[in-house]
Write a structure and sequence with these properties.
Number of domains: 2
Oligomer: single chain
CATH architecture of the largest domain: Alpha/alpha barrel
Low-confidence stretches: none
Structural class: alpha+beta
Strand order of the largest sheet: 5-6-7-8-15-12-11-10
Strand content: 15-25%
Largest sheet: 8 strands, antiparallel
Radius of gyration: 26 Å
Length: 634
């Protein structure tokens, strides 16, 4: 195998039910069949690709023709149909009379495909239908790195079934009524099908997938998250919300042996528990189902840090960043993360705040009280983690962890206005806002539960607010605003970014400061017309296709719009929501992880960021917040 370029996702089709997902081309075919071309295509379960390619052929005596695919539709995130014509079997009239429907249904650990032949011909049709399946055992991280080649597998045939294994991972393929043979690396499924006059005929095959090393599990709990359209509201909003709720349903996971659900961060790379991502997704989703917030809090609470370990960045009271089955390596980036990694500076205050908001949203008091010890440990970590200047900061101590540990965690995300990189340790502006809000809201919760300790938290938060105002504000040609961060020397890194918007509604800014920030963020250098840019167009490092330096992220935009609304700046919030609706329409209402930051005045639709995940939990949950803002009165 050789490493190459990360596969594009923007032109691929996904059908999923976490932790299982199937990626294909628009016509439903999984490929490519060449070992020299990297592709996301495949049948995945957990972090392993079990099938690398499929190929459908048909004919009268031998399967030599490819169906001509004409359309695709989806009943849900887990159920898709691909429609084709079989013109080689048709009569000579202009109207096509033989159709083939390929239905793909994905469940936890299973994929099933059903081929239905529909004939409008007067005479019977006899044909050979063949599906070639290429098994695989490539780890997801190798797929992401663009590694090409086939991983070796073992195969055992038994009638119309075959067992495929690689190590402890296994796949059982069954094709009722088919002849199952081997041709090189491929498994060949062959049916001889007869379709009577003006009738239908159906064949199917399925795979059951198993990987004992998985650290997450799917869920069978049914949910009812349907919301009705609101009169007088842009109909695009409901279309986006409907798709988002369907995607979030399919992204639900649990930890082994425990029913508490959380949202997987996103497909395809992040089908696991993430501290920051799962918390923000649950928080944005809170008005739909507070129970998801409660279960996410419990799932993360079970993994809360209990000891100091520089190798994993674990510290007592700290909330985990990421859970994997094994070490995660990123070829070419010098990153190697342990299976349980705590390299996040913001997940812990976000956990605290979500607990307080879940309590307000109706989380039973007994469940809240059960989590108070976790909250106290988290608060102790927040306060103890402040540096000599009193701010929460981070630095990777291993040399192979994440160099940036806020939500903008790429290596070049913290830049000065001239485009040069800031040196760590880094104290992010929004993290100070998160910490302030966590302390104040935790104090209110303790008062509500008649528990002690509230005044200590309020005093600490007040001091943080004062220090923040003294140290973080900068003034440049763009105006006056909070810097993205303080660098290792305590200097304010002066780039205007979306990070400042995360401060809105936290309480760390006063009302005049909030309005000043909001005015800048809806201005032309930050608002693209398709959402909020991560970095100002006036910054030296701006590039519309930079991961964190000019692109637009749906969740980022929604968080800032939410903060504007909480600060009473609803008109500002609606500017961002309108941009999100334009973007959602362009992406068929399945918002990707991020898209390009080009201005709507320059392009009619936003360009995709080709490697962006979709669906992404917090991008989907952004629809809920945008719906709340758009339907707000007054």
């Amino acid at each position: 195998m050789t490493a190459g370029l990360q596969p594009f996702l923007s032109d691929a089709v996904v059908v999923l039910r976490a932790p299982t997902q199937v990626w294909s081309r628009e016509d439903g075919e999984i490929g490519p069949h060449s070992l020299d071309t990297a592709s996301i295509d495949g049948v995945f379960h957990g972090d392993t690709r079990f099938i690398r390619a499929t190929r459908v052929r048909y004919g009268t005596d031998a399967a030599t023709h490819a169906p001509e695919w004409i359309s695709r539709s989806a009943a849900s995130a887990s159920d898709a149909r691909f429609e084709a014509l079989l013109r080689r079997l048709d009569d000579r009239t202009p109207d096509p009379k033989i159709r083939l429907t390929r239905r793909r249904v994905v469940a936890d650990g299973r994929m099933r495909e059903e081929f239905t032949l529909v004939s409008h011909l007067e005479e019977a049709v006899e044909l050979v239908l063949e599906v070639a399946v290429t098994p695989d055992a490539t780890p997801m991280q190798d797929v992401k790195s663009g590694t090409v080649g086939a991983a070796p597998v073992e195969r055992t045939f038994s009638g119309d079934a075959v067992e495929v294994s690689s190590g402890d991972a296994s796949m059982r393929l069954q094709a009722p009524g088919a002849e199952v043979t081997a041709a090189g690396d491929d498994l060949i499924l062959t049916w001889r099908v007869t379709c009577s006059s003006r009738s239908t005929a159906t064949v199917s095959w399925h795979v059951d997938l198993d990987d004992p090393s998985l650290v997450v599990r799917g869920t069978t709990r049914q949910v009812d998250w349907a919301l009705e359209p609101v009169d007088g509201v842009d109909p695009r909003l409901f279309r986006w919300l409907r798709q988002a709720l369907d995607d979030l349903d399919a992204l639900r996971l649990t930890l082994p042996g425990n029913p508490d659900e959380f949202f997987a961060a996103g497909a395809p790379w992040f089908f696991t528990l993430f501290g920051r991502d799962s918390l923000w997704a649950a928080r944005l989703f809170l008005s739909v189902d507070p129970g998801m917030a409660a279960s996410t809090l419990r799932a993360l609470g079970r993994l809360q840090g209990s000891t100091a370990d520089p190798a994993t960045a674990e510290e007592p009271g700290k909330i985990v960043h990421e859970l994997r089955a094994g070490t995660l390596t990123m070829p070419g980036e010098g990153i190697s993360l342990p299976p349980l990694y705590y390299g996040t500076v913001d997940a812990t205050p976000l956990w605290i705040t979500l607990l307080t908001e879940a309590h307000e949203a109706g989380m039973p008091e007994a469940e809240v009280r059960d989590l108070l010890p976790t909250m106290h440990d988290a608060l102790d970590w927040v306060i103890a983690s402040a540096n000599a200047d009193g701010f929460l900061d981070y630095v990777d101590e291993t040399g192979h962890g994440l160099s940036n540990q806020g939500w903008k965690d790429s290596g070049d995300s913290i830049q000065w206005r001239d485009g040069s990189l800031a040196d760590g340790p880094i104290a992010l502006s929004e993290v100070q806002g998160y910490a302030y809000e966590a302390a104040v809201r935790a104090a209110d919760l303790l008062d509500a539960l008649e528990e002690g300790g509230a005044e200590r938290l309020r005093s600490w938060a007040a001091d943080l607010r004062t220090r923040f105002r003294e140290r973080f504000w900068v003034e440049t040609s763009e105006g006056r605003y909070p810097a993205i961060a303080l660098d290792r020397d305590g200097r304010a890194v002066d780039t205007l970014t979306s990070n400042a918007g995360h401060l809105l509604g936290t309480g760390i800014l006063d009302p005049d400061e909030e309005r000043d920030v909001a005015d800048l963020l809806v201005g032309p250098s930050m608002a693209s017309g398709f959402g909020l840019r991560t970095m100002s167009t006036d910054a030296g490092g701006y590039w519309p296709l930079s991961y964190h330096g000019g692109s637009v992220w749906a969740h980022d935009t929604a968080i800032v719009a939410r903060g504007m609304a909480r600060a009473g700046l609803t008109d500002h919030a609606r500017v961002l929501v309108d941009g999100m609706l334009a973007a959602a329409e362009a992406f068929a209402y399945r918002m990707p992880e991020l898209h390009a930051g080009d201005a709507a005045s320059d392009v009619t639709v936003p360009a995709p960021y080709p490697a962006a995940c979709r669906p992404q939990a917090w991008s989907a949950a952004a629809a809920v917040v945008c719906h709340e803002i758009a339907t707000r009165t007054g």
